[in-house]
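Weekly puzzle thread! Below is a chain. First person to post its structure in token form gets bragging rights.
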Amino acid sequence: MSDEITRPLASDVGPEQLPYPAKQSDMKLQPQTDLAAYRPADKLRGRVAIITGGDSGIGRAVAVAFALEGAKVAIVYNANDDDAAETKRLVEAKGGECLTLRHDVRSRAECFAAVNATVDHYGGLNILINDAAFQHTEEKFEDITEENWRRTFDTNITGYFFMAQAAVPHLKKGDAIVNTGSIVGMTGLALLVDYTSTKGAIHSFTKSLALSLGDRGIRVNCVVPGPVWTPNIPGTMPADEVENFGHEVILKRPGQPDELAPAYVLFASDDGSFITGALLEVTGGRLAAA
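Winning reply:
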């Protein structure tokens, strides 16, 4: 990344609020997802990747980075057609190919349908990026509804499990699965008891799946973001939490999606050939021990 890119500080983030599911196109302070200063090196040339949650935020940045590195990408999204179309536009503007697939990862059948559509369209699959996520804040633990508990788990960990089951039969030695965890899966967060529980589950799922697929030469790793400016923040967090978002990290600002994307490139490419079962914290200094 170029030093010339201006990164918004925590003090630049106001108390923005958007209805859920929030659209990236509606955000006043736009996340940085176009990889404007990224320096590609053909690290994924000839590979095919499917990315859940690829319509916005981290997923969009990963799709653009992968396209720059030569991969053909498919993005899976659940609701925001306009955001998905913008991801496709950005990927194609970088010279890449992007298949948009509207599916609900809570459904095993839809996960298999998304993977099969990708394989049918591109002729194979090499990389699975699990990034779809749902969260809903509650001040009091007792107020977490059964509906939100189940939706959070079904999206954040069951969906990852189903996507992996769908993808693995198509993967071969040297291919990769990359999951998206969270630093709050290590530290906890009072407002997000259900969400943080799923992120802890994703961390352990990553390590267990790496063990399970090691003999086949399929690598499984997990990127662990800190506070990152995505539509989920103004769409799900209270205004007082959104304001000054990212103030608690060493760098005193939220991360931008394009700052996370290189970690996914590392895990998906041959640069990560000796890395599996790993959790990579990309947090701006939001420490697990803090």
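Puzzle host: Confirmed. Bonus trivia for everyone else. The radius of gyration is 17 Å.
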